[in-house]
Design a protein that fits this description.
1 helix; 242 residues; 15 strands; 7-stranded antiparallel β-sheet; 8-stranded antiparallel β-sheet
Amino acid sequence: RLNVTNATLQNNPDNNWYNPQIFEMKVFGTPVDKAKKPEPDINIDFDSGSGELKLSSGASIRQDGEKGSVLYLDGSDNAYGEFPVGMLDGLRDYTVSMDIKSESEGNFFTFAAGKNDAKYVFVRVADKLVRFAATTDSLRDETEIKYHLDGTKWHNYTFVFNGAASKLYIDVKFITETTETHGQLADMGTGTTCYIGKSYYADDTCFKGSIDNIRIYKCALTDAEITGGEAAAQVRGDVNAD
């Protein structure tokens, strides 16, 4: 969109009495499909430790037959990882991607960011369902995405947040989206936290399962940056629509 807010008319500079019109506009730059993909702000593959992710006692790095070194969370009350406080403060546009193999059922968060049990964004990968929810007013005002699949197999999950639009990709394939996300990190104030495996609800359990290749971008990746020109993720499995 191009908005003309002020203009000086060439033939009558002192009498700006009509709205100028634009007849031609050129934009110069690099096409999205040829641009270099942004580098992740967080990039952890667990081959050389957990990086910025601080691990609790129920979290460890193990060897997986398919993935090599991965983060394993044993489902105990201390099974989680924690990123530095404030890491995602003020963001409206960001992308979260990771490979997940779940052993969990019930109420838990696989990925969580926010302040408390009233202001949060979370992803839950269970044995048969992946669910995303966001809110700044607890359960009563959650925006959600649900999708059925075999969560006990390795899949790559990528969530793109672009203002009120939230998109889900599985194994670098676009799945679904919502354009009415109510809970945005930028509306949760400063000092937000970010967890892998831990919920903001005291009665919830911690996630049990394996996680690899955590990548967080402080921008909303485009569809082309996620799917275009990339080989399918090494986490193939059966994905079925609800």
